[in-house]
Amino acid sequence: SAATINGHAPEEGESVTQECTNLVTDPGFESGVSGFFAQGAGSSVTHTGNALEGSHSLLAALNGWHNAWWRHPFAYWASVTRASRFEVSAHLRSELASASSLQFCASVEYAEGGQAQNCARVSGAAGDKGVVSAVLSVDPAKTLSSVRIRLYPDGSQRVEVTVDSARACLDVVANPTNPTDPTDPADPTDPT
Fold first, then answer.
1. Which candidate, 92, 110, 75, places its Cα nearest to that of 183?
2. Residue 11 · residue 160 · CB < 8 Å
3. Whose CA is closest to 130, among 170, 94, 86?
4. What are the φ and ψ backbone dihedral angles of 93, each rounded to 5 degrees?
5. CA-closest candidate to residue 76, choices 176, 155, 192, 1
6. Which of 97, 130, 152, 162 fits a disulfide with 126 by CB distance 3.0 to 4.6 angstroms?
7. Got the DSSP string for 16-65?
8. pLDDT digits (tens, 9 = 90+) for 181-191
9. CB distance 90 to 163 below 8 Å
């Protein structure tokens, strides 16, 4: 039978999450915010006991057009530099009704410059959204400098979303064999 996500056929940008090596080190947020951070005045990410799963979750409170990010940088000589696909997923719950929808995105930065992103739209209605995923086809000819999970309101109204069981999965196609540049082109504090 056809694959489903929460009982419906996958839409463009969605897929059924497959087994992978999860790049998010504390996907259940039991120990903290697991490297997520917020951008923009009045926006925040916090460790919350109002959990979706387990004892804790992440709460992202974002004013209109602001971002919450998780970023995994790769040094030039890292063991993973080229990939064909990047998939992110998480269990989400909207804590307040908003006229803004939430964009949940898989995003990559290329070492040669440029970036790519694909997002799944999540309605602004309050309530449990189930597991949401976004899949990005990655240019396997380009070297990656980082992969990211991005959440942002697609509108000017604030969104508050609880996040749990976060996953970031990369389909590797090539590893470096002879690095010639020992410097890291990525600044791990710069989410752009």
1. 75
2. no
3. 94
4. -140, 125
5. 176
6. 97
7. PPPP---S-SSTT-SSS-TT-EEESTT-EEEEESS-SSSS-EEEEEE-TT
8. 444 344 444 44
9. yes
CA–CA separation, 102 vs 125, rounded Å? 10
Whose tokens are 């979750």? That residue is 57
- Token digits for 55? 């004892």
Listed residue (94, 78, 65, 96) closest to 146, CA to CA: 78
Tokens of 27: 């996907």
- First vs last Cα of the chain: how many Å apart? 40
pLDDT digits 0-9 by tens, 19-60: 789 999 999 999 999 999 999 999 999 999 999 999 999 999
The residue behind tokens 């992202």 is 60
User: Mean pLDDT, to the nearest integer, of 88-111?
Assistant: 97
CA dist 6 and 174 (Å) reads 33
pLDDT the model gives residue 39: 95
CA atoms 24, 29, 35, 41: torsion sign: positive
